[in-house]
Amino acid sequence: MFGKKKRGSVKSPRFTTAGGKILREVVRQLKAAKYVSNKFAVKDGETHSVGLHLTPLGITELDKVASKIVKSRQ
User: Fold this and answer.
1) What is the distance between the alpha carbons of residues 24 and 6, in angstroms, rounded to a whole number?
2) Calpha distance 56→64 (Å, rounded)
3) How many CA atoms lie within 13 A of 42 on its CB side?
4) Helix or strand or coil: residue 11?
5) Whole-angstrom distance, CA of residue 58 vs CA of residue 29
6) pTM for the complete prediction?
7) Quick one: which of 10, 38, 52, 66 is 20 to 30 A from 28 by CA?
8) Which pLDDT tens digit goes with each residue over 7-62?
9) Domain boundaries, the chain
């Protein structure tokens, strides 16, 4: 998913994936900014977390960034 090329002293550079802590930290910061939140579902009377979803604030922010990118390419 995320990573970079890593090279030993003599070895050729190879792609190495990033550690899970980096991704967990990114998700934690997105949650703190209220751009992402947990999505829950009820199954057999119990509530279960089924993943993450963008909040309306997160969607708005992504739309702003996307419109800036489109405008800069024109």
Assistant:
1) 21
2) 12
3) 1
4) coil
5) 12
6) 0.66
7) 66
8) 666 777 788 777 788 888 999 999 999 999 999 999 888 999 889 999 999 999 99
9) 35-74
